[in-house]
């Protein structure tokens, strides 16, 4: 056979597969350089996951009783993002967001002015540890050193009154319309405000709550419910196991006002005692309860 014919035949043999691939639609192909059939892969969509550094902190069940709950992981995220000491406002006072209604701003400033004017004869040891002496100036300094701004939010539930979200801004407090919707005395609103102010303390993991027992009953066997909304607390993350948390500290504040406030009216002291006793019911650690009972005797 002539050399030209052999060369032409070889070119034709190599050219056939190329023309066949062009003529047939075989879909996506996998080629590894070996002989044999070409493998086909099915089409699929791929969405890459976020790197671990961008993952959101673990979310826990939100309390549907009265006050917003955040998880220990969310408190740790706040510490990582903002550090252990939120900056104080430059002017020495907190600010309201533009969306906070005028009536809520007026009510909150009136409530803070009220508590800023109280005075008392001494204070219990736990009160001195957490706040200092029973003094309006001390209470005002406590609040202003922790809360830099106040905004509006639903705080995760239609029953919520107020909240702090340490993973967004640990020195900001959010209020809901429930702050002024219910007919509670002024001292009760201050109980909520100082409860939330305690939650701004990132150096203390924002004092996240413990879950209430289920069922949750008092010594007489009655179900314990939120004094603010009437919602059930059983199984809700709405209790504390320490006297120094948000429920414990607000209880200690109110109990001292009941027992030691010299500038308060009898009605204010009575209201303080009523709400302090209610909040004490949310202290579920036996040692914490014993510490507080002994503290109130001093």
> What form results from the Cα inertia axes?
globular
Count of the separate structural domains: 1
Give me the secondary-structure category: mainly alpha
**How would you sum up the major sheet?**
4 strands, mixed
Number of helices: 10
The order of strands across the largest sheet is 3-4-6-5
Number of strands: 6
Helix content: 25-40%
**N- to C-terminal separation?**
120 Å
Oligomeric grouping of the chains:
single chain
- Specify Rg, calculated over alpha carbons: 32 Å
| Mean pLDDT rating | 80
Overview of the structural elements:
The structure is a single chain. This protein has 298 residues and is mainly alpha-helical. It has one domain (61-295). The chain is 40% helix and 6% strand. It is built from ten helices and six strands, in the order αββαβαααβββααααα. Residues 3-39 and 44-60 have low confidence and may be disordered.
Short account of what is shown:
The protein is mainly α and 298 residues long.
Protein topology:
Elements: H1 3-23, E1 29-30, E2 39-40, H2 72-82, E3 95-96, H3 102-115, H4 125-130, H5 136-144, E4 149-152, E5 162-164, E6 172-175, H6 178-181, H7 186-198, H8 246-260, H9 266-280, H10 286-295
Parallel strand pairs: 3-4, 4-6
Antiparallel strand pairs: 1-2, 5-6
Helix pairs in contact: 3-7, 7-8, 7-9, 8-9
């Amino acid at each position: 056979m002539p050399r030209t014919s052999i060369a032409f035949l070889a070119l034709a043999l190599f050219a056939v597969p190329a023309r066949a691939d062009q003529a047939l639609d075989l879909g996506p192909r996998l080629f590894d350089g070996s002989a044999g059939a070409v493998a086909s892969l099915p089409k699929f969509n791929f969405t890459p996951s976020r790197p671990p550094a961008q993952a959101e902190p673990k979310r826990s069940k939100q309390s549907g009783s009265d006050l917003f709950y955040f998880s220990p992981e969310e408190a740790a995220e706040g510490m990582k993002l903002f550090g252990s000491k939120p900056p104080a406002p430059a002017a020495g006072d907190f600010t309201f967001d533009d969306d906070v209604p005028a009536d809520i701003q007026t009510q909150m400033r009136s409530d803070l002015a009220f508590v800023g004017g109280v005075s008392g004869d001494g204070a219990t040891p736990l009160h001195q540890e957490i706040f200092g002496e029973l003094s309006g100036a001390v209470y005002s300094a406590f609040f202003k050193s922790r809360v830099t701004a106040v905004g509006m939010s639903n705080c995760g539930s239609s029953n919520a009154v107020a909240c702090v979200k340490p993973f967004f801004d640990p020195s900001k407090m959010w209020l809901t319309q429930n702050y002024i919707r219910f007919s509670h005395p002024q001292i009760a609103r201050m109980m909520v405000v100082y409860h939330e102010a305690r939650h701004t303390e990132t150096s203390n993991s924002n004092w996240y709550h413990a879950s209430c027992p289920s069922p949750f009953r008092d010594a007489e066997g009655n179900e314990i419910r939120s004094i603010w909304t009437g919602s059930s607390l059983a199984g809700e993350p709405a209790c504390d196991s320490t006297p120094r948390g948000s429920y414990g500290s607000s209880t200690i504040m109110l109990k001292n006002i009941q027992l030691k406030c010299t500038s308060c009216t009898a009605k204010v002291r009575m209201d303080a005692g009523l709400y302090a006793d209610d909040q004490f019911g949310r202290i579920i650690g036996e040692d914490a309860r014993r510490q507080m009972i002994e503290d109130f005797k001093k």
